[in-house]
Amino acid sequence: MSPLKIEQGASSHSVYPLRDPNSDVVEKHTLAVLVENEPGVLARVIGLFSGRGYNIESLTVAEVDHKGHLSRITIVTTGTPQVIEQIKAQLGRIVPVHKVNDLTVEGPFVERELALFRVAGTGEKRVEALRLADIFRANVVDSTLESFVFQLTGAPEKIDAFADLMRPLGLNEVARTGVAALSRGS
Amino acid sequence: MTRQMTGAKMVVQALKDQGVDVVFGYPGGAVLPIYDEIFQQNGIRHVLVRHEQGAVHAAEGYARSTGKPGVVLVTSGPGATNAVTGITDALLDSIPLVVLTGQVATFLIGTDGFQEADTVGITRPCTKHNWLVKDPDRLADTIHQAFHVATSGRPGPVLIDIPKDVQFAEGEYIEPQKAKTSHYQPRVKASIEEVTELVSLIERAERPVFYTGGGVINSGPAASQLLRELVDATGFPVTSTLMGLGAYPASGDAWLGMLGMHGLYEANMAMHGCDLMINLGARFDDRITGKVEAFSPGSRKVHVDIDASSINKVVRVDLPIVGDIAHVLEDVLTVWKSRGRKTQGPALKEWWQKIDEWRGVKCLTYKGSDKVIKPQYALERLEALTKGRDRYITTEVGQHQMWAAQFLAFEDPNRWMTSGGLGTMGYGFPASIGVQMAHPDSLVVNVAGEASWLMNMQEMGTAVQFKLPVKQFILNNERLGMVRQWQELLHGERYSHSWSEALPDFVKLAEAFGAKGIYCDDPAKLDDAIMEMIEHDGPVIFDCLVEKHENCFPMIPSGKAHNEMLLSAEAEAFVGGGALV
User: Fold this and answer.
1) Of A19, B41, B291, B476, which is most buried with the most CB atoms under 10 A?
2) Domain final residue, candidates A63, A84, A107
3) Do B3-178 and B192-359 come out as alike in CATH topology?
């Protein structure tokens, strides 16, 4: 989700200074969760979401501080403001969780995702796929006479848009990493 | 100086260094090295239970009655899975436990070895945190951290899974002081702005009520002391959840009794009609709120809780305060006093007049009998005959539990052990064993129903073996009383499987275990029988045959609001059977 496309009232970017805590509007939030890199920690986080019936739209995890044994889990989730606050509080009380940041409300942030697309085709379709890939600045990372594998990095919407364009051109497999996100500024 | 020792020895050493004096457990293949170490020492007493679930409930009873964490030691596989119900019970009631489970050797993990179960996987959602220790050098440190996590912040059960080869292997022992300091340090103090806002709400409130919960008890004796001081100084009424009974004394003037589904009329009406609700360490459980949309519609709500996730989970509050009850109450008292101890005197007086009217309904009135023992009467007599004694009460789950909460009076915290959140039938008997271990000279009574009690009756062996004089006061209605009540009121009197046609002779059962059995079905003989139970120096099963079809009132049917309580016919008489509000 682009920081410019947040619905009104959904975040601190809103022209309204406060979110209505009793709102029934379902919001999409990107949470950055810093966790101790220990066995089972991802299971704890996922178990919390399934056990309490919260949604996961995307989840990525990798170690970000080898010396400090810290991993960063980026979760894109949806819910009413009350549910989002509950999710953050519930995450915060998992013992190996060090910090929970709600990037969506804490200020502008960037979200990026990497995706690989296998597009099979010949003739005009193959040329068109290559031309569109160029427009999207996707790289060709594998090629046969009948197929390409494109690598594309960008906000999830850009990935979605590219996938929509490739579908009629022979798209037969997609692999996406899920969202990684950081707040803007220092 | 480094101290090398085997993992098994480390376990015992770490428990000693953590001040543990009692462990509840059951041996098995995967914990034999630890049992071998227990055999070769005297500092820690081990209570051999008869089922692992019993070990966990006993540890809960020990923890709840002492404020110290309870310790459980069980084997892998079935040992661990049998402990799951108890662990979940402790999680829902925030009871600090350290559960040690054996595991198959590290090289067997994942091979479906004999008595292998994925214990950390199974217990992940029902513990506050758990660990699988694969490195003997990490074992002592993990045990010390486990005690820290179990007892810090909102208490809860933790579990350490120890493979058998780790118990045999040598490693370095680390003392508690040298253990890795955990980043887990929950906030205990509220900000001064939050405290001041609460004080100004107290100063302006015209119809206030304190709604206290298990968090006051968990916060420690100081919290109960400070609560009493604040309640008495402000003159605000106070009610409590099932878990919080005893934090404010039942003999106190401001006491309204328990609230909730089977709470007292005056307590529920005060909650419904208040303009300021101060929730201290309770969590707006569904058995408290009834219909959330109709819950206390006209009040500003303050919620003080050490667990941020408890706040705004069910009921949206106006002033959330994350902090430990004792710390927050201390600050509130200081600020309130420094601002001149203000309250709305005349309005409060009116509020109390209203409450006294509600008290006049006498909601606990029941129809007496000289032919059969009414369960309420049995508890009234138990209360009268044990009042003033050094007494601890545990309960099972069901009607008898609610009647015990209504009819027994608790003057102090940590005297009342019951399964609130999970509602575990079979909790009370083993819990009474744990309480008695911690308080060998006190009177420990488990108020039970016969159905609940049978769920962990095997623990009679434990009580007899360890000479624990626990009194099993069974209100025997030959029914699953609460199930029967709901079937009567909500399921067209179709009593589907809510009675047992093959109950044991409890007196003979007691004798079979080498204990004393008492039978009583005559109200005239009840007092003598209760005295006989109290005075017997040893475990007693008291089979108290009571009225079979008694219902527990007041009752808020699920999905209804606080002002839609069902009352007994006898209490209705006081309000003329007419409109209650």
Assistant:
1) B476
2) A107
3) yes
* Residue B559 confidence (pLDDT): 85
pLDDT for res B180: 84
A86, A93, A99: best mutation site toward chain B, by most B Cβ within 10 Å?
Answer: A93
Q: Which of 3.30.70.2200, 3.40.190.10, 3.40.50.10540, 3.40.50.970 would CATH assign to domain B375-545? A: 3.40.50.970
Asked if B207 and B269 count as a contact pair (C-beta separation under 8 A), the reply is: no
What ranges do the domains of chain B cover? 3-178, 192-359, 375-545
As for how many domains chain A has, the answer is 2
Query: How far apart are alpha carbons A95 and B357 in whole angstroms?
Result: 48
A90–B312 C-beta distance less than 8 A? no
**% of chain B surpassing 70 pLDDT:** 98
Tell me which residue of B383, B386, B366 sits closest to B374, measured CA to CA.
Answer: B366
For the B192-359 domain, the top CATH level (class) is alpha beta
> Which residues of B have a catalytic role annotated?
52, 114-115, 164, 482
CATH fold, domain B3-178, is Rossmann fold (3.40.50)
So what's the ipTM on this one? 0.90
Q: What is the pLDDT of residues A71-123, one digit of tens each?
A: 999 999 999 999 999 999 999 999 999 999 999 999 999 999 999 999 999 99
Same structural domain, A102 and A166:
no
- Does position B150 have pLDDT exceeding 90, yes or no? yes
* Residue A63 pLDDT exceeds 90: yes
Higher pLDDT, A100 or B559: A100
Judged by a CB distance cut-off of 8 A, whether residue A51 touches chain B is: yes
The helix or strand, by DSSP H or E, that contains position B167, with its residue range, turns out to be helix B164-168
CA–CA distance, A26 with B347 (Å, rounded to integer): 42
User: Which one of A78, A107, A136 terminates a domain?
Assistant: A107
| Surface-to-core class of residue B335, CB atoms within 10 Å of its CB (0-12 exposed, 13-18 middle, 19+ buried) | middle
Residues of B in contact with A51 (CB under 8 A): 125
Q: Give the domain CATH number at A8.
A: 3.30.70.260
- HSE of B492 in the Cβ direction (CA atoms, 13 Å)? 1
A117 and A99 both lie in a single domain: no
By the CB < 8 Å criterion, does A43 face chain B?
yes
Q: How confident is the model at residue A19 (pLDDT cuts 50, 70, 90)?
A: low
Q: Is A68 on the interface with B (CB under 8 A)?
A: no
The residue range of the domain holding A58 is 3-107
**A50 and A82 together in one domain:** yes
For A184, phi and psi rounded to 5 degrees? Answer: -80, 160
Distance from CA of B123 to the nearest CA of A (A): 11
Partner A contacted by B308 (CB < 8 A): yes
pLDDT digits (tens, 9 = 90+) for B242-281: 999 999 999 999 999 999 999 999 999 999 999 999 999 9
Alpha helices in B221-285 (DSSP H): 221-234, 265-273
How far is residue B15's CA from residue B146's CA, in Å, rounded to a whole number?
11
Q: Which of residues 141-160 of B touch A (CB under 8 A)?
A: 149, 153-154
